[in-house]
Sequence to fold (243 residues):
Amino acid sequence: MKTDLPLVADLHTHTLASGHAYSTVQEMILTAREKGLEVLALTEHGPAMPGSCHLYYFGNMRVIPRQWNGVFVLRGVEANIIDYQGNVDLKPRYLKKLDIVWAGLHAPCLEPGTVEENTAALTGALCNPFVCGITHPGNPKFPVDEEKIAEVAAREGKMLEINNSSFLVREGSFDRCLQIAHFCRRYKTIVCVNSDAHIARDVGNFQQAWQIVQQAQIPEDQVLNTSMEKVLSFFNIIDDWIN
Ligand SMILES: [Zn+2]
Ligand SMILES: [Zn+2]
Fold:
């Protein structure tokens, strides 16, 4: 059941360890392989999310093999933004051990603020040197100044995600995500299309998010996960692939 889209990596997924997701690491990897993906990132919620992993989980991720069943695995986190300055719920000593650090706004970890507050939270997180980008920036629960975040992300060399799960679990996301995508095109902000799978069968589900890329006419090479080389270069781990 190979995907027909030009996407080779799913860089935002959750396993059982997140507390409200339902598959094991091995199940996620096997599904990634079945769908023809070359790279899978494991990005559990940070510890401020009720029921998610203890700090020790993030400190021990090196036990997960770099390549497993033909899939290149990135060890990561979807850190929670915990204030309107954009601070996240993992300290640098944990973040520095991970390949990929997303930051996202989640209602159990921070009350939705005003547009100004939410925008400040995202721009603050984008300026954190460990953070690679923002997950589901089009979440209608946390309205933001879309142009500003696309501009700041571009300036910082960070990514904005188009999250395929948003269309199921974050009602009203499509128009906001499309608006963000238009600004990403204008400012040449790097875009990443992810499943945000919370169960193995959703790994590599990108269909609706990809529609947004097409509608906004974002060129394929502006989407990070259209090439394994681009992904591994972005995260400075290309040597692990060649060796
Ligand atoms: Zn999230
Ligand atoms: Zn997520």
